Each structure stands twice: as structure tokens, then as C-alpha cells.
Amino acid sequence: MSHHHVSLPPPPTRVVLPAVVRIVSMLAALVGAAALGWAFLNGHLQLAWSAYLIGAFFALGLGVFGALWLAILYLSGATWSVTMRRIPEAMTAWLLPGGVLAMAVAFGAHSLYEWSHTDVVAADELLTLKAPFLNMTMFFALVGASLVLWVVFAALFVRASRRQDQTGGMAATNASRVFSALFLVVFAITISIVSFYFLLSLDAHWFSTMFAVLVFTDVMQTGTAFVAVVAALMLATGTLHGFINENHLHSLAKMVMATTAFWAYIYFCQFMLIWYANIPEETAYFLRRSANGWLPYFLVLPLLKFVVPFLLLISRDAKRNPIKLVPIALLIIFAQFWELYLMVGPAIGHGAEASHGRLPFVEFATTLGFLGLFTLVFGWSLGRHGAVPLKDPALAECLAYDS
């Protein structure tokens, strides 16, 4: 590791969410609660629970991304990101409340999942074969265990980082690298379990070997976009003056661009392989999303999630200029909601009761509510500790970084 003699800027004060962000987040949470309440009170149980599932999974993905990104940064030795580390650390604070809220989807299982009805399973040969995995006992056991593991590893990362704030040295960094190697293996298994139960099993007859990988790309793309919004706003407002500059933002935006291209690659691969093989058990998923008015929603997704953000991010200026980067990152965050709506919406209702494409007002309001809650928890966590890990041995290298 090279040693740079860099004079440290004055230590920043603790980061507090601006009042306007807190107020908007609270309003978003209230709007989400109102939309959910309206759906429940009017007896639209499928609409209410599908909206809840979309919002809960959306926020959960942001929470687990914090731990995932920390693991990737530690293992890759990405010193350019040291001054941004508090952002993913604060994102992990959502995992405990967010995990509990996500598990509450179980209360709406009868409205969402065919496999939660014993009479339906008994009359369906395929669901009977899947029953040892698709049942509520296994749902609670496997999803609950996965979420607990996420919380534990996130706590290990954050605790090691706090210890380094006190003592300095490489011990905490080395410990975090060990945790990171273990976590990435655990994450590969647990994200598969969580995405299968919450999302894939909505289409309980469908088979896909790429679904968990697709959800992983969603988590990476949306998470890096959220970090980009926070870091760009910090740069624009001078919050971490001297600690985050255009070079750091440039590398972060390259991560956003890379994950955007990676999402397109995985999404296209899943679609192309299913289209080419033309196996009825697999094509049913996409046929359902191109019938009953869903086709326009389906066709818009690659534009929102890949074509537009990728083209806008190509220029060097867009990666270094907060005013240009923030809207692109917000578009990606919205596109994640759109994709979750396409995963959940067409799967609700079966046979003659198939759901029809429509503008997702309740779903969007509910997701905004979850995003508001997530932002409040994130801001609370961000303000509890020093804004920058000042005793990290790689800090000088990070400050001298030139992209």
C-alpha cells in the first residue's frame, strides 16, 4: 500500500439529515400508510398486500445492500471509498426493523401465494411436489434465518468500524475482510431464499434458475444509485468538504453504470434463454406479462432501468457533476419500483381472475412510504457516529485518490 502525505481537512461534524429531507420522508411515510389503509378498509386485500410486498422488499434490498457493498469494498481493497463508508453502514440500520416488516407479509400470504392454500396445493400436482419447500413453516424458518444472518453480519461490520474509530490500526480492517468473505457466501444463499419465497413463489408454477441472480443485480444497481444520491448531495452541499470530491463521485458513478449494464445482461439472458427454449413451464411468466394490458409496462422497463440511465451516464461530466448524477440515480431507484411492480402485479390473480395492467398508484404510494421510513432510519444511524472513519489507515490514500 502506498503512503501519501496528505494534510487532513478539519474533521467534519456529524451528519444530520436536512430538515426538508426529514419532513419529506415523514410525509412519504404518511402517504404510504394512507394508501395502504385505504386499500385495506375498502376490502382490496390483494392490492393492499401486493403493494405492501413491493414496498417492503424494495426497502429491504436497500438495507442488505449496505452490508453487501461493505463486504465487496473490504475484499477488493477499494480505498477510494473509505470516506463514503458511513453511508452503507447507516443503510444496514434498516435490516432489523425492515426485516420484521418484511416478515409481516406472512399475514397476507393467503392473498398473495397460491401455495399457502392447502386445498389448492392438494388439487395441483406440481404444487404438491413443491410443498416440502413451499409451506409457511419453511417460509418462517428459512426467511427468518436469512434475515437474522443479515442483521448479524451487518452488526459485525459496523462494530469493527466503530472499534477502528477508537483504536486505529489494521486489526479492524483485517477482521472485516474475514467477515466479508464469509458474508458473500452466506449472501449468495440467503438472497436466493428470500427472493424465491417473497417474489418467485408468487408464480408458483414457474421455474427460473436466474431469478436470484436478477434480484442480486437489482440490489446492487438500486443500492449504488442510493449511495450516489447521498454522496452527490453531500458533495453539492459541502457536507464532507475535503473528504468527498469529484474523483470519488466519478468512481461511484462508474459502479452505478457497471451495475446498470450488469442488470441488462442478466435480464436479457433470462428472457432470451426462456424465449429460445420455449418450454411452457418457463414461458408462462413472460406470457402473463405481455397479456391483459401488461405489455407496455413490460416494454418500458428496459428503457427505465438500462437504456436511459446508461446513455446519460456515458459522459465523464455526468459521473462527476452532482446536478446530473442525482436525477439519473433517482430514475434508477424509480425503475426498481417498476420492476418489482412487474414481478408482483401480474402474478396476483390466477386463471379467469387474472390481473390487468393499470397504473400502480397504491403500490407507488406504499413504496414511497417504505422509502420514507428507510430514509428516516438511515438518517438516524448516519448521525449517531463520526461522519468519516478518521483512523482508517487507508484514509490518506483515499484523500489523494485521482480517478
Global morphology? globular
Structural class: mainly alpha
Number of domains: 1
Number of strands: 0
> What is the chain-wise order of helices and strands?
HHHHHHHHHHHHHHHHH
Rounded Rg: 22 Å
Largest sheet: none
Low-pLDDT stretches are none
**β-sheet strand percentage:** under 5%
Terminal CA distance:
17 Å
Percentage of residues assigned to helices: over 70%
Please give the count of helices.
Answer: 17
Mean pLDDT: 92
How would you classify the quaternary structure?
A: single chain
Characteristic key phrases:
403 residues, mainly alpha, 17 helices, 71% helix, globular
Strand and helix map with partners:
Elements: H1 19-41, H2 45-76, H3 86-91, H4 95-103, H5 109-112, H6 118-122, H7 125-130, H8 136-167, H9 171-198, H10 211-237, H11 246-277, H12 280-288, H13 295-313, H14 316-320, H15 322-344, H16 361-382, H17 395-399
Description:
The protein has helices at residues 19-41, 45-76, 86-91, 95-103, 109-112, 118-122, 125-130, 136-167, 171-198, 211-237, 246-277, 280-288, 295-313, 316-320, 322-344, 361-382, 395-399. By secondary structure, the protein is mainly alpha-helical. It has one domain. The protein is globular and about 70 Å long.
